[in-house]
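Quick one - inputs below.
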Amino acid sequence: MRVWSLERAFGLDNLELVDRPAIEPGPGQVAVAMTAMSLNFRDLVIVTGGYGPSLKAPLIPLSDGVGVVEAVGPGVSRVAVGDRVCPLFFQNWLAGAPPHDLFRGTLGGPLNGVLAERRVLSADGVAKVPDHLSDAEAACLPCAGLTAWSAIVTEGRVAPGQTVLVQGTGGVALFALQFAKLTGARVIVTSSSDEKLERARALGADETINYRTDPEWDRTAKTLTGGEGIDHVVEVGGAGTLDRALNAVRVGGTVSLIGVLSGGKAEVTLQKILMRQVRVQGITVGSRDGFDAMARALAQGGLHPVVDRTFGFDDVKAAFDHLKSGAHFGKVTVGV
Ligand SMILES: NC(=O)c1ccc[n+]([C@@H]2O[C@H](COP(=O)([O-])OP(=O)(O)OC[C@H]3O[C@@H](n4cnc5c(N)ncnc54)[C@H](OP(=O)(O)O)[C@@H]3O)[C@@H](O)[C@H]2O)c1
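Output:
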């Protein structure tokens, strides 16, 4: 079977297509024939060496994908041959609070990821996916989908009629838009592109702001709420956006801290949080229970993740280049 591996070193040029022997699942394990994968911003950082020396080559990248159970080892009853499943981003977080060693269990680094024709995994580390999704759509769920679900539903508890602000039109952001609309919220989307904002409106965005042509988007957002402020900000920009997110949020509102697209170290005026009783909630993907709840909601709501473009398995490097360009709207996927 073929896998893409950072065989000797990190860097996109060092990503090699190599052959590996197919192993059979042992007790408690399943073999999954992968059918599609999706790329996250994190994968780009890992592949290009941005995670530093904590990750070691050889490494198979990518956390997110979907496939069909091809074989099960002794003692497996959760899933059966023929089931369509996603490997979970955190192989070691099934329910409740995250375990203390959470980051030892992530696919695509430090654990080998899903950019492979076949993977053998713990049966506990996979979850069934809704039938109405294509493989490309289902491949977007484990990290991007579940992160947005945790922000809006599990931790965010967004309620009908509340206002949610979503930054950008990337993978996490568009899932957040869709889940927020599912809960009955009013959604404001920001983007650097008017054309992308048009597409966000078609997906249900109630209001849009171009953060390039309107750098004071926090003021504009607040005005759109009659001056009260946003109930829930989905914060993916990081250092370059957090201060404005805190300006935009209402007294007693929530900022879901998810991403660091413009840097991971921010200077924050703490009074904006404590004196206005703002909840700043860190989000780190979610548990298997969260995934199952998200899958039920997707099926019930008939929602389809937004796939920007699908590349062939041999064209993975072009897929990374496309993600890097920032031209995408939603998810960049790879088909096997
Ligand atoms: N905490 C977690 O569990 C978790 C999980 C997944 C992702 N993340 C993080 O969340 C972030 C987004 O990930 P992703 O996979 O959704 O990325 P992505 O698909 O590559 O999305 C990038 C998009 O974000 C928008 N953007 C970029 N810089 C921005 C800024 N300064 N202000 C507002 N929007 C900006 C742009 O949208 P426009 O083109 O529309 O302007 C860009 O296209 C990354 O930092 C990632 O590491 C965290």
